[in-house]
Amino acid sequence: MKSDRNHNAVTTFETNRLVLAPARLGDVARLYGFLGNHDAMRFTHVDQTFAACRKRVLVHEWFRRRDGFAPWVIRAKENQSIIGWGGLYTDPFDPGWGPEVGYYFHPDAWGQGFGTELLTASLDLAAHHYRLPELTAFVHPDNLASRRLLEKSGFGVRDFIPKMNRYRLKRVF
């Protein structure tokens, strides 16, 4: 794990099968390949244009400098291909919920346990590196796999947010 001296940001991190790193401008095209795909993102936010995806990724990177954390580009360690984007973040586009955890994977990566691996690493950093008191996560009512993953990881449903059509889950450390 590498940390940024100025902000205590974990800039790169590896798990058994993943390499997690800040986004670079050159990563946006590959990220847009699934973050802009309506089928892949049917339970969450879809970036309607490449420019919207670029803006979202770059604004989150600015928040990494401010908060010390933001979603990582997720690469498969075996071949360095980009398979996802996620981790700890404070949502700059829907503020007020506090630190969150989220994950967005390319459909080719679904069902292989990468979400569990990312979530485990994120929770460890949240508790032991950043010492966050709690984390929030949101899940669409039809996304049963994500809800099971979050509940298995110690999150509990707090309420339903009708304007978001999402359950809000919390994990207290």
Description:
Helix 1 packs across helix 2. It is built from 4 helices and 9 strands. The protein is an alpha+beta fold and about 170 residues long. The strands form 2 sheets. The protein has a 6-stranded antiparallel sheet with strand order 1-2-3-4-5-6, with helices on both faces. It has a 3-stranded antiparallel sheet with strand order 7-9-8, covered by helices on one side. It has helices spanning about 30-35, 50-65, 115-130, 145-150, and strands spanning about 1-5, 10-15, 20, 70-75, 80-90, 100-105, 135-140, 155-160, 165-170. It is about 30% helix and about 30% strand. A hairpin with a 3-residue loop joins strand 2 (about 10-15) and strand 3. About 30% of the residues are buried.
What is the N-to-C succession of helices and strands? EEEHHEEEHEHEE
Given helix and strand content, the structural type is: alpha+beta
Radius of gyration: 15 Å
Shape: globular
Provide a count of the helices.
4
What's a quick, concise take on this entry?
The chain has four helices and nine strands. By secondary structure, it is α+β, with helices and mostly antiparallel strands. It is globular, with a radius of gyration of 15 Å.
